[in-house]
Amino acid sequence: MDASAANDVNKCALSGILSIDLEALKANYRLLAAKVSPAICGAVVKADAYGLGADRVGPALVEAGCRDFFVAHLVEAKDLKRYLPREAKIVVLNGLLPGGEPFAAASGFIPVLNSLAQLRNWSKEAERYGARLPAVLQFDTGMSRLGLSPTEANALCSDPDLLRNVDVEFIMSHLASADESLNLQNTDQLSAMGAVAARFPEMRVCLTNSGGIFLGRGFHGAMARPGLALYGGIASDGVPNPTTPVVSLSVRVIQTHTVPEGTLIGYGGSHRAPFEMRLATLAAGYADGLPRSLSASGAAYAFGRRLPIVGRVSMDSMTVDISSLPDDALGLGSLVELIGSHQTLEDIARDAGTISYEMLTGLGQRYHRQYI
Ligand SMILES: *Cc1c(COP(=O)(O)O)cnc(C)c1O
Fold first, then answer.
1. What pTM does this model have?
2. What Å distances lie between residue 291 and 16, 190, 288, 312, 363, CA to CA?
3. Ligand 1 centroid vs 44 CA: distance in angstroms?
């Protein structure tokens, strides 16, 4: 079967269609890059580019001018490297586990070093490797997740020899509350980072994720590292979302039927039809990243109408109430909207009791992916 025939089969052999607008992604990158300029704008493409496919997202970002990429794990760096030009830099945010150093060094990856122990290991690797090695040094400025503690920062200051074999590309930290523009933790972390930077005056600062870009120039440092905003997500409560949506999701109808008043719907008989209802069963469920917590609170859309989810979301399907539509409006194979112009990523995440990040990274591999 040739590629286009396989593509045609996939379109109607999977749960639905996940559309990823690479032009919108590039526009979002350019917008954020302009906003942080003269700081450099990198891109966070961990978790397979937030579930959207690092193999397509990476090269699209390169076309938009990005050369600095951030992943979480060493194995993600290994996969991503195949899709990027030689000069692109790949930073591994979670750092290295013991044993990962030789591969990281030979591949030219830049680990984030989160402790003095990791710094010593990387320094030893540099001796073994026979050349200075690049790194990003992370300091914990108040999130208590990753990075050198203030005590370790002191130890490093009093023993600069620890950095003898290591080229520090950036010193970095991570904001815990960047999406909340009025949260005072942001300014606390900014001043803590300022204090670190004052002790390492020759080093460049990398502090901000998507949200921090909208907190003002003081947060931009020398390099920004947005993720969610590139993918069209709302990163800050402080400004109207300036980015363009990248993702839309439509799911297939696999059965329609009319049930009399009193009929039980779905697992556990948790919903009883309060009147004669017309129902559509959709071909996606919690194994497709549409959480069970959408039961009774979420909806799909078709012809501008909200179609409430009734009964529990199953693993591979869910049922929606289509009584508000004409009987023949939807049939086998019809597509209904889950993410799109009627329901944003944030809307469906809220209905599921979660955040857009979790929604996006959970969508999974059972949709036909259409890159625009
Ligand atoms: C995930 C992550 C980012 C990107 O965050 P967004 O809120 O998606 O922009 C930046 N820095 C670190 C350390 C991260 O873990």
1. 0.95
2. 16, 36, 8, 10, 10
3. 6
